[in-house]
Amino acid sequence: MRGSLILGFADYREPAQRLAAAAGMDYAEVQVHRFPDGESRLQLPAKLPEQVILCRSLDQPNSKLVELELAAVTARELGARHLTLVAPYLCYMRQDTAFHPGEAVSQRIVGQWLARLVDAVITVDPHLHRTPHLRDAVPVHRALSLSAGPLLGQWLEGRPAAPLLLGPDSESAPWVKSIARLAGLDYGVASKVRLGDREVRVTLPDLEVAGRDVVLVDDIASTGRTLAAAATQVLAKGACKVDVLVTHALFAGDALEILQAAGVGEVLSTDSVRHASNRVELAPLLAGALKTVAETD
Ligand code: R5P
To answer: Which residue in 63, 214, 237, 293 is a FRET match for 227, CA 20 to 30 A apart?
Structure first.
């Protein structure tokens, strides 16, 4: 795709560079200076092609969203006519309704705001539990929601003993089902009640786990409490081992320690969010989606 440029940011440099290589595009970086008071000053290449792809994952999102607005507006001033956002992790998708009176519906507000900035959005496994299509949340001209399921399924195929896949809550059902189907594995889905940011109650499905290797599958690991609660119960019921497979490794605070304390063995994730557990690179998947956007716009 000649005449297109991927504009990355230092905090997501290597995955964005891998994407540029996979898509056959040039890569340049937005220079970000953080002033002592927390404001950001951005500098883009002084001249830009018509097609610009902003590539940054939106974990730890608040300052990144402001910087995205500064970058997108400036990119248009510098000559970009078509802007695509590649955000392998798309933030604020979980708050899709006002769960309590007066709450902001962040999914809709952030989605509409992104849609005013860019012409196309590409993301991976967005948390759209009650929202049928990405475009309903982010009403851009082209909204591509990709699944890491096939890549995660490939990792499972290499394991010596066929594991039982377990989704820790009903919202994980689409991921666990599709990965189980692709890898030809048994699966179950637990149910969860969330009592607070760091407090959940998980109830296992009626499945025999004794003597099995179990892999917990979810889209997002944030505090790790959901996965830890599921792991504790599965091991108490006699599972041989419990590993974890997630698309988005947010792993806030002490999440990894909590998982280890719960008896979790291996933790594996995609590089949608940079983390020591990253094993699956999304660049080929994202490059294919960029090609689709280029061909249809
Ligand atoms: C929500 O339902 C998601 O699928 C995850 O289960 C959730 O975000 C995990 O959160 P935590 O790691 O904080 O328990």
So the answer is: 63
Residues 45-88 have pLDDT tens digits of: 999 999 999 999 999 999 999 999 999 999 999 999 999 999 99
Out of 3.40.50.300, 3.10.20.810, 3.40.50.2020, 3.30.430.20, the CATH code matching 149-280 is 3.40.50.2020
Amino acid letter for position 297: D
d(CA 22, CA 161): 33
Q: 3-state SS string over 161-226?
A: CCCEEEECCHHHHHHHHHHHHHHCCCEEECEEEEEECCEEEEECCCCCCCCCEEEEEEEEECCCHH
| Mutational test site, ligand 1, from 89, 198, 218, 225, max ligand atoms within 8 Å of CB | 218
Question: What does the pLDDT look like over 141-192, one tens digit per residue?
Answer: 999 999 999 999 988 887 778 999 999 999 999 899 999 999 999 999 999 9
DSSP classification of residue 94: S
Cβ(176) – ligand 1 distance below 6 Å: no
Q: How many residues does the chain have?
A: 297
